Amino acid sequence: MNENELKALISLLDDPDTEIYHELADKLISSGPEVVPFLEQHWEQSFDVLLQGRVEEIIHKIQFNQVKNDLQLWKISNQEDLLEGLLIVNRYQYANLHEDEVRNQLAELKRNAWYHLMYEMTPVEKVKLLNNILFHEFGLSGNTTDYHAPQNSFLNKVLETKKGNPISLACIYSLVAQRLDIPIHGINLPKHFVLAYMDEDNPEEVLFYINVFNRGQIMREEDIRSFLQQLNLPPSDEYMKPCDNLAIVRRVLRNLVASYEHVDNLEKKKEVQILLDLTDPA
Fold first, then answer.
1. Which terminus has fewer CB within 10 Å in the chain: N or C?
2. Which domain of life is it from (predicted)?
């Protein structure tokens, strides 16, 4: 479809016949993301509320299809890149985000920690350094006043507001740590999400755990066992050893489903559930 044909299609979107509108919308949606700039331009030039609403609906469907495609591709071929998976989730709500801003913010946090990092530091000393950089200097904290807000699950908003939920804070913490070659990885605890500092000499062994929602509090294995006991769950590897990146992204999406249900946004809850279903490892 050339530019003139595209503009002609868009100009007909205010047709009162809904069947004609849906036919036009399907053609535009099937054309993919390249038509979005033209739709946005038409929205800006129009004062017709009906047309603006229809353009917004079409743009959202195009962008949602792109998120679905990106997420499926990440699941198949790029799971090693946790940040990319989280940015794809971000695109669901913030399609026009300049993602380099997130990457640059993480790189700056890494640099700030690297400047103080010394080879002879013990694992506990390294965690204390990260805690100081992330919680004291940068100001990250758990969002205890609006715990269920959807924004707590979007990386860009957590870095902007400096408030998040356990898994978003843990993702930032581990992304910074791993860029410094510090072996800190996610632990997919029920009802909570923490981190584990792994033994560099024996990568399968956990040295200790880190409660990021409580400003990097160090936890012992007994603490995790006690927590699981309270939930009547066994101390299995599923809950005590690091999970993979797909499990982390799925946990973020599950949190979003619950968040949108909490704020009674059933349309977004339904869409995020679709994304969650697409990441099913089965």
1. C
2. Bacteria
| Residue among 217, 221, 28, 41 at smallest CA distance from 141 | 217
Angle of helix 36-45 relative to helix 49-77, nearest 10 degrees?
160
| pTM metric for this prediction | 0.94
> Which tokens hold the place of 207?
């040295």
- pLDDT band with cut points at 50, 70 and 90 for residue 6: confident
CA atoms within 13 Å, Cβ hemisphere of 89: 31
Task: Tell the CATH topology of 3-77.
Answer: Leucine-rich Repeat Variant (1.25.10)
| Distance in angstroms (rounded) separating the CA atoms of residues 188 and 231 | 14
Predicted local distance difference test score (pLDDT) of residue 39: 93
Q: CA angle 24-27-30, nearest 5°?
A: 145
Q: Rounded to 5 degrees, what are φ and ψ at 215?
A: 55, 40
